[in-house]
Design brief:
- The protein is built from 4 helices and 8 strands.
- It is globular.
- The termini are far apart.
- The chain has helices at about 25-40, 80-90, 90-95, 105-115, and strands spanning about 5, 15, 45, 60, 65-70, 95-100, 120-125, 135.
- By secondary structure, it is α/β, with parallel strands linked by helices.
- It has one domain.
- The longest helix has 17 residues, at about 25-40.
- InterPro entries: Replic_Relax (IPR025855).
- Pfam families: Replic_Relax (PF13814).
């Protein structure tokens, strides 16, 4: 057991993991869980169940809309993140999107400047925001709880 989750009602839920777990991975997974619970996708995959070529932090679906999720906590230089963005450029052919989840709006601005050819398929949000934005800074209605 690696931890417990306490809800407002009911018994605490134990969290198990079958392997060695680094402390930074636990915090990362807590943040990914917070993100997923804030947007409630119809379906999601995490950790070792995701696309093994891209290795995103998660994959999620809203109906038939498929997205890869990347949690960017600001510890990796933007030049290295740019290389990861280049891997995602193949998404333009498949119709998938990638959502970059950050901890600060300033990091979103840095990512938006580097999105390049992926601009039409890239979305951004800050953990705790109630909206997602595209590479132009426009709110994406179907993922922000607004009516279509």
């Amino acid at each position: 057991m690696v931890g417990r989750v306490f809800g407002e009602v009911g018994r605490p839920q134990n969290v198990y993991f079958g392997g060695n777990l680094k402390t930074d991975l636990v915090r990362h997974e807590e943040r990914m869980t917070e993100f997923l619970l804030s947007c409630w996708p119809d379906r999601w995959l995490r950790l070792w169940n995701v696309d093994d070529k891209l290795r995103p932090d998660g994959e999620l679906w809203f109906g038939n809309t498929h997205l890869y999720a990347e949690l960017d906590v600001g510890t990796v230089p933007l030049t290295r993140v740019s290389k990861k963005m280049m891997k995602y450029e193949r998404l333009m052919e498949h119709g998938s999107f990638v959502v970059w989840v950050t901890l600060r709006e300033s990091r979103v601005q840095g990512l938006m400047k580097r999105v390049g050819k992926l601009a039409d398929r890239a979305l951004f949000t800050v953990l705790g925001w109630d909206r997602w934005i595209d590479a132009n800074g426009e709110t994406i209605p179907f993922l922000s709880g607004e009516k279509q």
